[in-house]
Amino acid sequence: MILPIVAYGDPVLKKKAKDITLDYPKLDTLLENMFETMYGAYGVGLAAPQIGLPIRLFLVDTAPFAEDEDLTAEEQNQLKDFKKVFINAKILEEEGDEWAFTEGCLSIPDVREDVFRKPQITLEYFDENFKKHTQKFDGLIARVIQHEYDHIEGVLFTDKLSSLKKRLIKGKLNNISKGKINIDYRMRFPDQKKKR
């Protein structure tokens, strides 16, 4: 089932999410719905707060990035096959020199800005079967994970922009929170109770 994606301005997006346990109700159904919602909106990642749940859960499928012709064959293969669920994730370490990449967010449609992030991370997380992993990620995969991880920490990519950039996009952000935007996926807006 495709769920409405929570729009910029909703307080759930600024909340630090809570850990969940193995007995979280209907986790399989939730994951299925989240993947369907993400694919329906042409996303590469989706965090639970983006569907209104303040829990430490996000999922990633970087396959759309594999079509970038500027990447090596090895990078394309890595991205094509990377699909994962992350539960109760914790970034243990971020390494390397920060690099800029243009990011967007399903909760903030039509806003794309360069964000600086470190290229390598070490992450501790549980998969959908609650098996614990500690793993290193780098490049675009690390970036997508960092973006989704920020969501469970109550941080949006727009929080990482300079004050000048924030002022330049303020009008767009206000319009998003009021639902004054044309999008082709379901959203829930904080300033109005209607769904699209």
Please tell me about this protein's structure:
It holds the Pfam family Pep_deformylase. This is Peptide deformylase. One of its GO terms (biological process) is translation. By secondary structure, the chain is an alpha+beta fold. The chain has a single domain, classed as Alpha-Beta Complex (Peptide Deformylase). 26% of the residues lie in helices and 29% in strands. The protein has four helices and nine strands. It has a five-stranded antiparallel beta sheet with strand order 2-3-4-7-8, with helices on both faces. Strands 1-9 form a two-stranded parallel sheet. It has a two-stranded antiparallel ribbon with strand order 5-6. The longest helix is centred in the C-terminal third of the chain and has 15 residues, at 163-177. It is globular. The mean pLDDT is 94.
Total beta strands: 9
CATH architecture title: Alpha-Beta Complex
Secondary-structure-based class equals alpha+beta
**Which residues form runs of ≥5 with pLDDT under 50?**
none
Query: Would you identify the CATH H-level superfamily?
Result: Peptide deformylase
- Helix-residue proportion: 25-40%
What is the straight-line distance between the termini?
15 Å
CATH class call: Alpha Beta
The overall number of domains is: 1
Strand order within the widest beta sheet? 2-3-4-7-8
Shape: globular
**Largest beta-sheet characterization:** 5 strands, antiparallel
**Contiguous helical run count:** 4
CATH topology: Peptide Deformylase
β-sheet strand percentage: 25-35%
Summed over residues and divided by their number, the pLDDT gives a mean of: 94
Order of helices and strands: EHEEHEEEEEHHE
Function: Removes the formyl group from the N-terminal Met of newly synthesized proteins. Requires at least a dipeptide for an efficient rate of reaction. N-terminal L-methionine is a prerequisite for activity but the enzyme has broad specificity at other positions.
Organism: Seonamhaeicola algicola
GO biological process, one term: translation
EC number: 3.5.1.88
